[in-house]
């Protein structure tokens, strides 16, 4: 718990004050308790008279702060102020840093280097697999993966990090005690147990549309780079990418099919100068993050998988998107009777996945 927690929360709950005005007050007095002690003097600053001169509003805010502290203690949540030694240095650099952070989980994790992985909620299978693979590789190389716990790419990124025993941070557009979306209650519990769930909003704050663009600055602010996996032209991920640029972070984007509307936003970012990412190594090169020798783009030791020439030919014919068996046969120049046992053998070895409609895709962990 941060020092002067009651004072910080009192400022937070004062109607009309907000992070921007609190930042102005901090520039004068440095700490929440000092601001309240010099309330009469602070009220003479432009725009603050009505807020700080209202004794009834101050008393109500103080009562609300005390109730909030009780809830924080009961739920084992940490509260960090922007002047605390535990406040992440990455957020100190941004202009509109949050005044308070509620953290459920490992507070020290917020000091670690992070990669943000974001994208479409209604992601394709390609996007979900790619997010998991890149998140797993980043986690295995010592980066914490930060995202927003939404459906689609966000959830896949958190899952990818967790699956390899890595660290991940979920930044919410609601209170840390509110499971949103509700279907991710278990995922958020797992993240809190082995990583951290973070929000600047008070406990019990419900998810509302306007809060998500606000929380996006924390996702980008915590990270060294923001990786956009899939995003449409009007995706909220583009807001996060713009915030990342404003904060001096690297913006990276993974291309998809030119026919896919889910990737149109990522393609636009690349046109605007975002770094095009094709391999996991591209991410670490863009971040100037050292990659251990002897690893492949999946994060582990380069595997030696013995394949017959015909099996290798079939694998090479399968790219990121599913292909029907006739197309594979045509590309490989094989009869269906010869191709089917090869596909079955690759499927049994976990290298190929069969989909409905006689479609096949290459499995990339």
Written overview of the protein:
- This protein has 365 residues and is an alpha/beta fold.
- 45% of the residues lie in helices and 13% in strands.
- A 9-stranded mixed β-sheet has the order 1-2-6-5-4-3-7-8-9, sandwiched between helices. A 3-stranded antiparallel β-sheet has the order 10-12-11.
- About 4% of the residues have low confidence.
CATH class descriptor of the largest domain: Alpha Beta
Second CATH tier, the architecture of the largest domain:
3-Layer(aba) Sandwich
Residue windows where pLDDT falls under 50 for at least 5 positions? 291-304
Spatial sequence of strands, sheet with the most strands: 1-2-6-5-4-3-7-8-9
Q: How would a textbook summarize the main sheet? A: 9 strands, mixed
CATH-defined topology of the largest domain: Rossmann fold
Count of separate DSSP helical elements = 17
Instruction: Please give the oligomerization state of what you see.
Output: single chain
The figure for the number of domains is 3
- What percent of the residues sit in helical stretches (DSSP H or I)? 40-55%
The dominant shape is elongated
Question: What percent of residues are in strands?
Answer: 5-15%
How many β-strands, per DSSP?
12
Structural class: alpha/beta
Supply Rg. 24 Å
Overall mean confidence score, pLDDT: 88
Task: Kindly list the characteristics that best describe this protein.
Arc Repressor Mutant, subunit A; alpha/beta; 9-stranded mixed β-sheet; 365 residues; elongated; single chain; 3-stranded antiparallel β-sheet; 3 domains; Rossmann fold; 45% helix
